[in-house]
Design goal:
Chain lengths: 458, 458
């Protein structure tokens, strides 16, 4: 069996068993069952528990052995020793296994031994394991959701092209929740935890050739096989943008977890070098990561770092220009011909330059003219439109107008719209059109930088 | 008359005239009248317009000359030439004047000449002028609001201790709107525009001895009298924290406005030096500015940069530690005695270190113990509590519990709580308690840095 094909049981299963399923709403296995149902998984779902006839309206089986065929994917969210015991006794019925349960390697010597037993099973039998100590998979392409956080606490993102691979479950969760709130969809999300078998490299192999995935974002604490990682990442980044964050970059951040700080600090340099070699765009923090996810989830990559800034407020335009310059983007002056055209096309109260300030007298039509002339000038790779929503002539159609001018050029358009409640409400209109919205000049610039770097290796 | 006292007409007027007041809802003068009424100004408000008997329920006067006494503060939001004409003809009736109107120095030679006429009036008569081309004053201490943005588009902040001095009206507006949305109050806000008379230094003089102001945040594009600025700023920063942003730091950001870029780039270095000399903490962007406003509006200054990070999610704790280290804060290890006490006081699943990870099994009580022991240890100047709201045992009382432990220590507590809709809703509970809430590790660190720098000159 091809390694990559062996992951189809996770990303394209026909049947899923929830082992130890419970009808009690407070149990993880119950929440997971509900998550699966809510996600709309169209294959068979088998709750497994000898105590019940049915759970959540699904026929319950007494054990995995009662199933007629092998189950493609089995989920475990029970005590660690019992998990290992059950996998061992029913291994011939299993293909893919996700172990949500903690109490393994992270918790002491007994847990380490249990992980050893799992590794032995993977070596001896044709099964694959994600986890333990993870949240598993959230997949809008195959409609799978193994996350045990109830819907009222965590909004699931809609379908999109961005896939996320994360060693930390809580990091993946927080990012997904924030993306959902920003109207950005995802394709496949994998929280892989302790990595007894399936690694970030396995996931990269899969996603590289996955038609549902247009870009990949990774959260990495540690990589076990550096060479394999560089190979898998390079293959993937050759086909689609890949960004990654290495958590624990600073000595202090890692000193809590590991005593030999000197070694760790050195190790980070190795990660940096590996990212560079593999064509991965490294991002340096949570905000960078979220910004990258937002633009990669919505925009075409930029061909370079030349950005035109169009604004209706002088102060905010200057702030974006300052941030862009500090971030290494090119706030290139208007080409002479374009400047001349714009002086014709715009009223005299506008400041024709970069930033291009339409002032508080801005209208949708002026934004449209400014965006069209600059993006089609050949002088810019993308645009940031700062829209303070004070100007009375701006209407709710502004987003539609801007998107209509940007899309035909194939160049990314980023919205920068800081403010309070009124602004937040109006920003939803931009989001509904699939435009990336940032609420600070620095945020917009973080997004622009990721587009420039993934597009051009800059 | 003392220079400082001469600003009482702006910050403590007994009467305010709105010259050219209109009953039409779309006119700036009408919105300003409504703003003043909504703000609850308790002195006399005089709409001035010969065409009407009353506007917005207030008796209307035909001209300033009809008033029996001098008016403390007169507002103008009409055409530039007419504004100058009216001020000239009624100058004996005026003390403070705010000229909202544009069309002055920023718009060409005719406007420059009009500004010259205004300067002559200030030199010859005992009047003071704020503006032109500004939004004027928003003041929760004296209940004045001259901002012409309707209430439904712009949420006014409640009363607080932070005062803001801004050359850019739109910048001030956006910041205030965002602060209001974060539950943070302000004291006095001045948008001073073209500065024909009252300058940032005049405002600093006033705010230095203003009991309603506990901290000052400034947005500066240019300063006309550098020596006076350093003197005024040093006097103010000796009494309360002062932060400032210089807009147009980069060559590109200023090249649009001014052609001699080399001179400008050099000039920024002069601003940096002036800030340093004056004891002003310079912030480098919009996010930095907002973060500084949030913490200065709510927290005591920190005695230094030693920060304890308490979290319920490993990934987010490491991200905060990475950001703090990158920002030059001291993520100091736990003092040995405190570490020993915490190992006693916390369950074994907690990671006792800095970051201190309470894990997904965190409870309010565990947060309370961790915060109390670390802040009282003598090892830390402030705390960042990262609260991912997934852990089922955390209740809505978490904020109250945390604030109750932090307040007696006199040390700042910053909340870091990233996520989506559920998190945003729960974050309001922290805000209502007067805790500064940031939705990213980097945001929390920006806030912590401003507290450390304003407290210790770090």
């Amino acid at each position: 069996m091809q390694r990559r094909d062996s992951l189809d049981c996770f990303f394209n299963p026909r049947s899923i068993a929830v082992v130890g399923a419970s009808p009690e709403g407070s149990k993880l296995s119950n929440i997971i069952l509900k998550s699966l149902k809510n996600a709309g998984f169209s294959g068979d779902i088998y709750p497994i528990n000898p105590k019940y006839d049915s759970i959540e309206g699904l026929k319950c089986h007494g054990s995995l052995d009662e199933l007629e065929e092998k189950v493609d994917l089995a989920l475990f969210a029970m005590g660690a020793p019992r998990t290992v015991e059950l996998i061992k006794s029913s291994v011939h019925k299993l293909k893919g296994v996700i172990i949500i349960s903690g109490g393994f390697g992270e918790s002491g010597p007994e847990g380490v031994a249990l992980e050893g037993a799992l590794r032995a099973l993977v070596n001896e039998h044709p099964i694959r394991i994600i986890g333990p100590n993870c949240l598993g998979i959230y997949d809008t392409a195959s409609k799978i959701d193994t996350f045990f956080i109830p819907a009222e606490r965590f909004t699931r993102p809609a379908r999109g092209g961005l896939s996320i691979i994360s060693q930390s479950g809580s990091f993946a969760l927080t990012v997904m929740d924030e993306l959902a709130s920003a109207g950005i969809g995802v394709s496949r999300v994998v929280s892989y935890g302790n990595m007894v078998d399936v690694s970030e490299s396995d996931c990269l192999d899969y996603l590289a050739d996955d038609e549902s995935t247009s870009a990949v974002a990774m959260y990495i604490e540690s990589v076990s096989d550096g060479k394999r990682f560089v190979k898998a990442a390079a293959a993937c980044s050759g086909k689609k943008p890949v960004i990654a964050i290495k958590a624990g970059r600073s000595r202090v951040a890692t000193s809590a977890a590991l005593s030999h700080t000197g070694a760790i600090a050195g190790r980070y340099e190795l990660y940096r070098a590996a990212f560079r070699k593999a064509g991965i765009v490294e991002v340096m923090g949570y905000e960078d990561f979220i910004s990258g996810c937002k633009v990669l989830g919505l925009c075409p990559p930029a061909a370079g770092g030349r950005v035109i800034i169009i604004t209706d407020g002088g102060g905010i335009g200057v702030s974006i220009a300052d941030a862009a310059a500090a971030g290494g983007l090119d706030v290139a002056p208007l080409p002479a011909k374009t400047a001349a055209e714009l002086k014709e096309a715009l009223p005299s109260f506008c400041t024709v330059g970069n930033p291009l300030d339409l002032t508080g007298s801005a209208t949708n039509e002026l934004y449209a003219r400014a965006l069209e002339k600059t993006l089609s000038s050949g002088g810019y790779d993308m645009a940031i439109a700062a829209t303070l929503l004070g100007p009375p002539a701006l209407t709710d159609d502004l987003g539609k107008t801007l998107a209509g001018k940007a899309r035909p050029t194939g160049k990314p358009l980023i919205i920068c719209s800081p403010g309070g409640e009124y602004t937040k409400k109006k920003n939803r209109l931009f989001m509904e059109l699939g435009l990336p919205v940032f609420t600070s000049p620095e945020g917009a610039v973080r997004g622009a930088k990721v587009l420039a770097r993934t597009g051009k290796g800059f």
